Amino acid sequence: MTGPATITVPVRFTANGTRHEITVDPRRSLADVLRRECGLTGTQVGCEIGVCGTCTVLVDGDPVRACLMLAVQAEGTTVETVESLQQDGRLNALQEAFRDAHALQCGFCTPGFLMLGTALLREDPAPSRGRIRQCVAANLCRCTGYTPIIDAVEAAARSGQE
Ligand code: FES
Ligand code: FES
Fold first, then answer.
1. Are 30 and 57 in contact (CB under 8 A)?
2. pTM
3. Where are the beta strands (DSSP E) in the chain?
4. Cβ neighbours around 161 below 10 Å, total
């Protein structure tokens, strides 16, 4: 006796400038496919239920919890992960600000905060501290107490770059 046939479907999207055409089980999350099929392991997976935000990536420029989005829903989109932030192998201004402000300790949450900050600074290059606070409240950090993360986004905004 044979088991039920596994259904797979094709999905095409661009991740960090690279076009991907993959056949996936339609139940797989975007986070899982980014990590396992695209090799983009900078996207972390914590709670897998949409609470912690460490899996945050940008889909067509908007922050998305990649553990809650099915990979097939990424059809035709442009995805950006934390790996896209480096410029010619160097940290970008937001990443440098995180380093300089000690905005990471264990670092597990950091990719999600960097992508949130990237989206915020694109939309509002000079956000108020209150707006930064409101933005980063979307994600969980168990180590830093948030103040250094807010300081880092504020410093990156002051530097005039992401
Ligand atoms: S792993 Fe996606 S929100 Fe926690
Ligand atoms: S630095 Fe450890 S959870 Fe944020």
1. yes
2. 0.95
3. 9-15, 18-24, 56-59, 62-65, 78-80
4. 14
